[in-house]
Specification:
Shape: globular
Number of strands: 5
Number of helices: 3
Order of helices and strands: EHEHHEEE
Strand content: 15-25%
Structural class: alpha+beta
CATH architecture: Roll
Number of domains: 1
Length: about 90
C-alpha cells in the first residue's frame, strides 16, 4: 500500500494523519484516503476533483503531472506527500 502524508502546516487546518492506502493511481489512493476523511478532501481537491491551486502533491519525490484527473501511477510502496504551496516573496 502507498503511504499518504500531509505536512504539519495542512494538519493545522484539517486533521489528516499519515495512512497506508491501496491504489494503482493517485486518484485511487486519494479517493480511498478521503472516503474516511471528507473534510480533508475539500481542502486538497477542488469541486471538479482536481488538486487545488494552492496544493502540491509528490509521488516518491516527483511532482504529480496530472493535477486534473490524478492519473499518475502509484506503486505499492510509494510515498505520497501532500504539501500546501507557498507564495509570496519580493515584489
Amino acid at each position: 500500500m502507498a503511504t499518504v502524508r500531509f505536512t504539519r502546516n495542512i494538519q493545522r487546518h484539517v486533521a489528516c494523519p499519515t495512512r497506508d492506502v491501496p491504489g494503482a493511481t493517485l486518484r485511487d489512493v486519494l479517493d480511498s484516503y478521503f472516503r474516511e476523511n471528507e473534510q480533508a478532501r475539500g481542502y486538497v481537491l477542488d469541486d471538479q476533483g482536481g488538486i487545488r491551486q494552492h496544493m502540491v502533491v509528490f509521488i516518491d519525490g516527483e511532482m504529480v503531472r496530472d493535477r486534473a484527473w490524478l492519473s499518475d501511477a502509484v506503486r505499492p510502496n510509494s510515498i505520497i506527500d501532500v504539501i500546501q504551496a507557498l507564495s509570496g516573496g519580493l515584489e
